[in-house]
Amino acid sequence: MDTRKQVSLRIQQLCAAHGYNINSLARKAGIPPTTLKNIVYGSSHNPGIVTIKLICDGLEISLYDFFDADSFKQAEMEDIG
Fold it and tell me: Where do the H-state alpha helices sit in 30-62?
């Protein structure tokens, strides 16, 4: 799975875990809903780290918590091996 898809999946997982939909997370993160939808649904191929940080702030988690997921760890191992 490529990184863009991993980011999209992680946002969806975290929304579900926190009880947010895309619009409510966008509001909490202070970003336009279209920006978040573009990331989640694949129109944005390279979301910036500042945007990811704003999403994390909206979820009240750290960047570490965002990227501390099995899918990211597995991808890193595949890149090494």
Answer: 33-41, 49-59
